[in-house]
Model the fold of this input.
Amino acid sequence: MKSPLVPSGNRSAIARNLATLALLLLTTFDLRAQETTTPPVADDKQLIQMLLQRIDHLEASEKQLQASEKQLQDRVRLLEKGQPAAGTAAAPDSPAADQAAHAQESETVEAENMDVSKTLMNIRGFGDFGLYGGDQKAQHTSFGLGELNLFITSDISERFKFLTELVFEVHQDNDFEEDLERILLEYDFNDYFKLSGGRFDTEIGYYNTAFHHTTWFQTTTDRPYLFQYEDEGGILPVHSVGLSATGLIPSGKVGLHYVAQVSNGRASSSPNVEPVQNLVDENNHKAVNVALFARPDAVPGLQVGFSTYRDVLYPLNSSRIGETIMDAYAVLNRPNLEWLNEAVLIRHALASPSHIYETPGFYSQISERFGSFRPYLRYQYVNASRYEPVFPGVGLRAGPSVGIRYDVNESVALKLQYDHSELRQQPGVNTLALQAGFTF
Amino acid sequence: MRPLEVLPAVFLLVLVLEISPDRAHGSEELESAVRGSPQQSLAIVVNRSNPVDNLPFNELRKIFMGERGHWQNGRRIAVLMMEHGSPERETVLREIYAMTEARYTDHFLRGLFAEDVSIVPKTLDSPARVRKFIVQAPGAIGYLRASDADESVKVLRIDGHLPSDKDYRLQIDANSEN
Done:
């Protein structure tokens, strides 16, 4: 019976091969018959030898054809049972299958040629290594490994996207630790509303979400003190677990964007617990963060914005603390010029005894690129009360950083940086850092 | 004066210097580009079902920069770039992105990392592939030499101008044809 599922191209190929085989076999039998009736001479012997070789060859071909025929019959049987056959191509004469084949072909080609990302999983890596020294008490000049960041994205479907930052880092005790610094599932409704859930970098101001966990995109060797990570003594809740909504606000040439985030907030029961509440929240109160920023068409590279973060902390040996963090910034990012300015006010309102602690801080960083070189200057300032209930050890830190970044090529950069920090009622601290950053 | 008081004033001063006309749009790299007499226009092409007929240049730039992920009808945008070194790509890098190849790569890598770009362009190696992709993908936008744009795709007006118009701004540089 003629099966409609057998590819017509394969049917005609089998018929052609079988006809050729039959013709050759008939020719062979005819020649063998002649051999028995004619007396053998020297030339005939050579001819017979050739014909015998040809017969051997034909017999081998016949075996191959039989094997192919058997494979095809097996595939037909599988197809008739409705099971997919491995390696079976869609019939090219079907328009739908043809279209699907074209789509698959073009998708493969496009995936291979995509500029940065692929439609499936894409991994980029960032890392750094350096030599660090300073005159602070008990500080030794040391070679130091920075963070090794594997940034993984995947376009799961047209609207769903997965993103994660898997970071391997070394702490002061020299032990390695791996952290999922970001892990997000994002749903892209449209340009005005994107919703993501998971662990994200809290959209407090600019720096935290512009550079995330790599020194590669930073001009400097380190983050401003204000935006240090929580597990390195940072004073802001730079990571959160929860939901985040972002999008454009219809505003024409003003280019307004919004961010709204709801999360577990930071842990506060004890300074020794993991500061990011990844699985269990200490309380039912959720932290809320709202940010607005503008990228006006009139000034390319300019971004100005502000954010407000609100949470309630419940320390074990203290009364409830209302936490409000306000941030305002203006940054200018041009191909050659970078100028970042950001100010933060952290307000902790103690319920009993009623008292408000305000910690102001800011940084300003400017750099200009000259070919492969980018010299930079940064000044930073944080001033916390010595009685601050959440980060009592911070106090005053203020001072300049000067340095230069040299881009060896598109994937390797060297940085040299000098920092001076004034501390409250302590001698100033000077540090020097030489760092090699790379992406792969 | 305290640093906090000085900063806003200095910032405004630099801003004023930076928005002077010859420096706008990252023109440092534009200035260095050698410009020759235009040989042929570059057509911006979309799927024929796309309801858009005209794009202001600013919107076109935002789309190519990855700052827009969707058309107004909700279709997801796919930006197509041609191969490295092609005159068409060099024209787009110069006129739309105002970037070098290295800056372009950095822009999308940085944008992807900071979740700042909605889409990353796909690279196709020939005008035929660009046409084929656009025919198959209703949300795609790409570019072709005007003579390569046939009936299978829709040519957009940019700031109200078609590639055949005198004031059309996307011209392939004669020097990049070599």
